[in-house]
Amino acid sequence: MPWARPGSDFTLLFEQAAISLIKEMPVLAVSRQLEIADKRLWRIVHYYVGRMLSEVAATGLDETASRRGQRHVTVLLDMQRPQEPVICAVPGHGKPPSRPSAPSRRRPGQRGRSRL
């Protein structure tokens, strides 16, 4: 169908409307409102987020606070995009949202957390 992306059961207009709602509400609430399974909405989200991230060449990560010692936010930026460079913003600080998880170095029978 020319009005749908390959492999999708939805029209491009429906996907656009769903993404617009997902930007403002949780996916589960949108799935109830649109009367479709949340798993199908997550597939739409993963497709468009993956497509957008594949176009990113250089990223930057910044942690900032609105007031001294309070309300921290971690921001992921596209360094090549002069207009609207923010990819995502996550409340909190300390661990960046894009940090890969480290493999465990625990031996069988060892208790507690292992340090790398």
TrEMBL record:
Region described as Disordered: 89-116
InterPro entries: Transposase_HTH
Stretches with biased composition (Basic residues): 104-116
Transposase IS204/IS1001/IS1096/IS1165 helix-turn-helix domain boundaries: 2-49
Protein name per its UniProtKB record: Transposase IS204/IS1001/IS1096/IS1165 helix-turn-helix domain-containing protein
